[in-house]
């Protein structure tokens, strides 16, 4: 410090002695300022004391758990802010764990947050410990999201009272129907549920009131050779009163799905989205005409359909048919005619009864004018000849999936050069690199992934 003081005095004396216009004066002033800063350092201010708490909270939201742990080690103030404002202490996410998580570690986390956990994703944890972990989480009154994904199959899941839980996702655990409804009754505020359910078990006589439930996704579990009947969950006479506000219903089977009798949901006027995946069906679907989203994937009807299961809808905004073998040209035509003004997303991928010769007259008639997202991947016979029809008759198209077809780089060039439609993304399989680069040069994404 003494050397800096002596240097400061020397620079000060030099400035007094030399002329004001001397070329060395600026350099001496800069050196004098440096020595002054070393003698009297500027007052340092903690940036977090200057920023508003709202900004500090926004900064902490972008930190992961590891960064948050480093953050709270800086000072006592940072420890206080990190403990109170960071969302990491409200989110118990074990999916990022590199090693199996012990019960003591979960207990320490819950105690560290004073029971303030709002979201919990259980993974990398021994299935035998899950009941005790759920008991710990039942002490967190603000818990609204719970996802259970065990490394091994869980034989059973305990029923715990989670009064404020809104989202429940249970994977790798098959729930008998009575246990499923017991869990639902212990969480009266549930809005979204996703679970494996053993459809061969019985439904209890009395069901809980689930007026808040908006989305239900059931993954089938069944013994070999079992016939899934219409009473999967929806044959109970009181079910409409139990879930009066259900908006989304998704059924998903295993790769070797059973035959299932089609269910009747015409009374569910609130239902907006419906999905059938990997299921063999007996009979027609009976769904409310107010449906806005319909997805049939890997579905087969037996015996072959005599009617039109998609002709009843007039408000569809999105229709997805993937590996849906009974979708015929007549069904597609009625779907487009009835939903000509509302339908914007259409997928007819790998439907064996459809070919380009069936699509061409429908496109020419203007039935595709409202479509913004079109997926015709795997449709038989699709080649470059369909491109002019798309350009002239689909002015609103933005995303086009042409993978697994016989189109070439010519289609890419024609779509890129066209004034309308204003294509944003094209999905293709095998085209030349020059065609892909040409699209990218015009700010159009050309990708091999949907």
Automatic annotation (TrEMBL):
Residues 45-92 form the F-box domain. InterPro entries: F-box-like_dom_sf (IPR036047), F-box_dom (IPR001810), LRR_dom_sf (IPR032675). This is F-box domain-containing protein. It comes from Coccidioides posadasii (strain RMSCC 757 / Silveira).
């Amino acid at each position: 410090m003494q050397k800096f003081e002596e240097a400061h005095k020397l620079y000060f004396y030099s400035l007094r002695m030399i002329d004001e216009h001397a070329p060395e004066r600026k350099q001496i002033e800069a050196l004098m300022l440096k020595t002054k800063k070393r003698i009297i350092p500027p007052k340092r201010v903690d940036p977090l004391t200057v920023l508003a708490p709202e900004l500090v909270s926004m900064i902490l939201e972008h930190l992961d758990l590891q960064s948050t742990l480093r953050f709270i080690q800086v000072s006592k103030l940072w420890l206080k802010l990190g403990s109170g404002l960071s969302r990491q202490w409200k989110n118990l996410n074990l999916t990022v764990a590199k090693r199996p998580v012990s019960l003591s570690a979960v207990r320490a986390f819950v105690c560290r947050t004073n029971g303030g956990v709002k979201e919990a994703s259980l993974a990398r944890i021994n299935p035998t410990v899950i009941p005790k972990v759920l008991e710990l989480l039942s002490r967190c009154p603000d818990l609204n999201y719970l996802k259970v994904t065990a490394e091994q199959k869980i034989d059973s899941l305990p029923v715990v009272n989670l009064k404020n839980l809104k989202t429940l996702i249970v994977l790798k655990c098959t729930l008998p129907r009575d246990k499923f409804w017991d869990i639902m009754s212990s969480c009266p505020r549930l809005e979204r549920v996703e679970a494996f359910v053993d459809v061969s078990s019985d439904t209890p006589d009395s069901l809980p009131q689930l007026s808040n439930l908006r989305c239900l996704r059931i993954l089938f579990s069944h013994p070999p050779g079992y016939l899934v009947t219409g009473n999967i969950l929806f044959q109970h006479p009181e079910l409409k009163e139990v879930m009066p506000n259900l908006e989304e219903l998704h059924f998903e089977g295993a790769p070797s799905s059973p035959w299932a009798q089609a269910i009747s949901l015409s009374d569910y006027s609130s239902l907006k989205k419906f999905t059938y995946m990997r299921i063999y069906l007996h009979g027609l679907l009976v769904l409310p005409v107010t449906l806005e989203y319909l997805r049939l994937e890997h579905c087969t009807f037996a015996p072959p359909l005599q009617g039109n299961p998609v002709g009843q809808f007039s408000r569809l905004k999105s229709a997805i048919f993937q590996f849906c073998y009974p979708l015929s040209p007549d069904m597609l035509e009625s779907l487009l005619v009835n939903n000509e003004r509302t339908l914007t997303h259409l997928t007819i991928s790998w439907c064996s009864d459809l070919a380009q010769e069936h699509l061409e007259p429908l496109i020419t008639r203007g039935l595709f004018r409202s479509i913004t997202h079109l997926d015709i991947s795997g449709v038989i016979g699709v080649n470059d000849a369909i491109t002019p029809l798309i350009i002239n008759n689909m002015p609103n198209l933005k995303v086009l999936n042409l993978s697994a077809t016989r189109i070439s780089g010519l289609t890419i060039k024609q779509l890129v050069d066209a004034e309308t439609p204003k294509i944003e993304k094209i999905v293709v399989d095998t085209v030349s690199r020059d065609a892909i680069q040409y699209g990218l040069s015009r700010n159009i994404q050309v990708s091999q992934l949907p």
